[in-house]
Amino acid sequence: MPELRARWAAVAGRIDSATPTGRDRSVDALRAVAICGVVLGHWLITSLNPAEGGLRTSSPLSSMPWLAPLSWVLQTLSVFFLVGGHVGALSYAAARAAGVSYGQWIGRRLGRLFRPVAAVLVLWTVVAGAMLVTGVEFGTVRGLVRLVLSPMWFLLVFACLTALTPLVARLSPLWPLAVVAVVDGWRFALDGPAWIGWVNVPAGWLVPYVLGAAWARGAFTARRAPAVLMLAGGVVATAALVLWGGYPASMVGVPGAAISNLNPPTLAAVTFGLAQCALALLVREPLARVMRKPGAWAGVALVNLSAMTVFLWHQTAMMCVTALGLGSGVELPGLLTAADSASWMAARLLWLPVFGAALLVCRAAFHTYERGGREQGGREQRSRGTSRIVRAGIAPAPVVTRA
Question: Of 86, 96, 203, 269, which cross-links 212 as Cys (Cβ 3.0–4.6 Å)?
Fold first, then answer.
């Protein structure tokens, strides 16, 4: 153990010394928190159970509504879009200053985003086809593919907002917030068509994205008051909407519920996101101080270097563990049992390290697709005499700043 600690301290020291001195490490820390929140949230509230016709997906939130506060902690998508807007605005400004065209800029950013997605889609197309050919129930295949694809829905939204950065970077968040409020009023108060709710998908996530762009312009740097007011307003508005507006308390979808706060986003999800973003902005400075410690920074840096791989493959890792458990023929608590009691949740916590180990295997197998754009960047950096950054595993800021 002392030897492992010494080796980690050495690695952390190299990563710390290779990081550019002007880098805002709190941005990377917030991105890591957002990614880890999504992963842990899916692992804790997604259950695959044997049922007639194949595996059935369920959620402990259906039978244990008192777990709703768990979604307040682990539904971190607003923070992800906040960081995305911040990084996108800074990246586009830097590209313009360097004379890089919009086409070149957006091509590089979307290439980093969708290259690893292609690997997931190709593999699961083959796997799904093989399962159907070998007689696996269609319901099981559909459920598994849906779990794999479900985390990707917002990548398309993120890509669209990234492409619109030049147009929306200076937009006030009040405009998309007003759109969400009008759409919800039409849907719920005036019995409007259900399809109109999908307008809230771009509008709802545009709110934290443009907040991130405002952060890039320095809107929350000099004064804490705007973030404090936003936090208070978001908390009060969300509480009012849940207590008296008929919105569910859970900030993620619950199977069987009449309303989902996330699919599509509701006004309650957006006001909750405002509070979440405000809290993230308020903890930036403490986070930055923590990130000065080489060990803490190294962990965050390594998560960021594998962020897309972790995000895209975490459901696959969970399903592989579940499949192995199913093959054992044993009804394993917290894995293949009904998610309907506190004991299930306690057992589920014990499975998290196993899911993590499976994810490490996926990371080792597929991280190369995430690194594709970085290989060329590494060669360019070596030609400029900064190879020690690449050798330490930290790419310069323009390369790492992606979803």
Answer: 86
Q: Indicate the length of the chain as a whole number.
A: 403
User: Parallel, antiparallel, or unpaired for β 54-58 and 47-51?
Assistant: antiparallel
With a CB cutoff of 8 Å and minimum separation 6, the contacts of 164 are none
> 83, 86, 104: which is closest to 95 by C-alpha?
104
Rg (CA), the chain: 22
Q: What single-letter DSSP state applies at residue 186?
A: I
- Please, what's the largest Cα pairwise distance for the chain? 66
pLDDT, tens digit, for every residue of 195-210?
Answer: 999 999 999 999 999 9
**The pLDDT of residue 345:** 92
Number of continuous H segments (helices) and E segments (strands) in the chain: 20, 2
- Residue 214 corresponds to which amino acid? A
How far is 241 from 180, CA to CA, in rounded Å? 13
Q: By percentage, how much of the chain surpasses pLDDT 90?
A: 59
Strand partners, 158: none
pLDDT, one tens digit per residue, over 352-395 is 999 999 999 999 988 888 876 444 444 444 334 333 333 333 43
CA distance 31 to 306: 12
Listed in sequence order, the residues at least 6 apart from 167 whose beta carbon sits closer than 8 Å to its beta carbon are none
Give residue 403's pLDDT: 33
Q: For residue range 48-74, list pLDDT tens digits in order.
A: 877 765 677 888 998 899 999 999 999
Q: How far apart are CA 266 and CA 197, in angstroms?
A: 8
**Residue 262 DSSP SS3:** strand
What pTM was computed for the model?
0.89
- Angle (CA) 30-35-39 rounded to 5° is 145
CA atoms within 13 A on the CB side of 64: 17
Whether residue 304 contacts residue 31, with contact meaning beta carbons closer than 8 Å, is answered with yes
Burial 267-305 (b: 16+ CB within 10 A, else e): bbbbbbbbbbbbbbbebbeebeeebeebebbbbbbbbbb
- Span 78-114, pLDDT tens digits: 999 999 999 999 999 999 999 999 999 999 988 888 8
Q: Alpha helix (H) ranges present in 134-224?
A: 138-149, 153-163, 165-168, 174-184, 200-216
